[in-house]
UniProtKB/TrEMBL annotation:
This is RecF/RecN/SMC N-terminal domain-containing protein. Pfam families: SMC_N. The lineage of its organism: Eukaryota, Metazoa, Ecdysozoa, Nematoda, Chromadorea. Residues 2-56 form the RecF/RecN/SMC N-terminal domain. It comes from Loa loa (Eye worm).
Length: 72
């Protein structure tokens, strides 16, 4: 479906929650390789998904002051 009728943006929330690290890395690499023309916002708690990103926004809770970081 992504190649037949692509959308301008996709939002995925913890699609890798039930996967181990190697499969999480595979999903990240597949998205980067096969869907270069699309934009993805992916919520993930696993580091394996972050290895294939162009831009990373990281939000970390820290007591009363949340920490936000942007990696380009």
């Amino acid at each position: 479906m992504l190649k037949f009728k692509p959308a301008p943006i996709y939002i995925l929330d913890e699609v890798d929650a039930a996967l181990d690290l190697s499969h999480t890395q595979n999903i990240g690499a597949m998205i980067k390789t096969h869907f270069r023309e699309s934009q993805f916002i992916i919520v993930s708690l696993k580091d394996g998904m972050f290895l294939s990103v162009n831009v990373l926004w990281q939000q970390l809770p820290k007591s009363d002051n949340p920490i936000a970081k942007l990696y380009v």
